[in-house]
Amino acid sequence: MKRLLLSLVMVVGLLVAIPPIANAETRTFPCGDKGNYSVSMPDGVAFKAYRCSGSLTIDSNVKIIGYRAFADQFLTSVNIPNSVTSIDDQAFSDTELTSVTIGNSVTSIGNNAFAFAPITSVIIPNSVISIGRGAFAETALTSVIIGNSVTSIGINSFANTLITSVTIPNSMTSIGERAFELTPLTSVTIPNSVTSIGERAFAETRLTSVIIPNSVTTIESGAFANIPTLTTVSLSENLKFLGINVFEENRSLTRIEYCGKLTGVPITPVCPSKAAAEVKAAAEVKAAADKIIQDAKLEAARILVAAKAAAELKAKQDAEAKAAAELKAKQEVAAKAAALKKSTITCIKGKLTKKVTAVKPRCPVGYKVKK
Predict the structure, then answer these.
(1) 23-226+273-295: which CATH number, 3.50.50.60, 3.40.190.10, 3.80.10.10, 3.40.50.300?
(2) How many CB atoms lie within 10 A of CB 276?
(3) Which of 2, 170, 250, 316 minimizes the number of CB atoms within 10 Å of its CB?
(4) How many CA atoms lie within 13 A of 263 on its CB side?
(5) Nearest residue to 190 via CA among 298, 291, 294, 295
(6) Distance CA 41, CA 114 (A)
(7) 256 and 235 Cβ atoms separated by less than 8 Å
(8) What is the pLDDT of residue 83?
(9) What is the pLDDT of residue 324?
(10) Closest Cα to residue 176, out of 145, 143, 154?
(11) pTM summary value
(12) Which residue in 38, 82, 46, 75 sits closest to 62, CA to CA?
């Protein structure tokens, strides 16, 4: 009996100690003329968009844009506020987006987040640390600015887009498989922070020359394969692994600068002279300087886009306020007119008949309203 009582006391104590669960609720917000999207509160997870179209500024209550939250919608532009910290997998895939503004609190962009949308340019803010698989694959991107906190680019992140040049930030340590495959990329700057380049990362691009810094220790199979325009490559002296067919089907490749001992280089490498080494070092210094310029451009572009979005939002709010004021004024005029409108009644007293016209007509004493 004592054990039973003790057990009951412990259970009651636990129930008292457990804090009450906050009441969850779902709120809806408009997106377009007839569309809306749901947000789970208090977590602030956006989900289940319906008939969204046109331009959208995500509400500041949203903290996470959930899995496929706006997928397959007819949105043409979206402004993601600073309240959002995460964009989940396929959040905006298969939309009509041509432009997107990503707030500077977002730390992760999920797999296929913007895939298959006609986006032409994007600025990835400095807050972003990771870009998922296929995040911008199969889009119409021609330019991208990658913030200097990104440490990795996932598989197929920018594959099959229209990007022609890119500067990899010096926060990056790895470039994923097929990251820029099947793009018209003509130039790329790889910083000293990168240690590995994934399988077919730059395959079937339009690169003419590549400088791979000494920080790179691994280049996976086919990383620079099928590039008919590639003529010169400068390899890292610290390479520890060179995959098979890294430079396969590069018929214009005539010079590879490399002083290491790894085999598998498709043509006899040339160990550059001191002068050439100095040129390479100068190129790396230039890449660092370009990175500083890129960061400045990133911040300036972010401020410009944010200012434009704020101005558009204010103009929209002003227009809505003006329309509401005009509607209210019309309603007040109509109400006053209705209040002052005269009407006529017929009054009778025996065989006598009188018509009375007034705002609020009343029959004389002794008369009754004829029905």
Answers:
(1) 3.80.10.10
(2) 13
(3) 2
(4) 0
(5) 291
(6) 25
(7) yes
(8) 97
(9) 80
(10) 154
(11) 0.69
(12) 46
| pLDDT tens digits, one per residue of 17-55 | 333 334 579 999 999 889 999 999 999 999 999 999 999
Q: CB–CB of 82/61 below 8 Å?
A: no
Tell me, what amino acid is at 209?
Answer: S
Those residues whose C-beta lies under 8 Å from the C-beta of residue 137, and which sit 6 or more positions away, are 112, 115, 116, 156, 157, 158, 159, 160, 161
Kindly state the tokens that stand for 362: 């009343």
Report the candidate in 131, 358, 352 with the shortest Cα–Cα distance to residue 366. 352
List, in sequence order, every residue forming a beta bridge with 211; answer none if it has no partner: 234
Regions of the chain with pLDDT less than 70: 1-23, 274-292, 294-302, 305-306, 309-310
What pLDDT was estimated at residue 33? 86
CA distance 249 to 5: 80
Q: How do beta strands 121-124 and 143-146 pair?
A: parallel
Identify the pLDDT of residue 98: 96
Structure tokens at 220: 């996976």
Cα–Cα distance between 283 and 209 in angstroms, integer?
A: 12
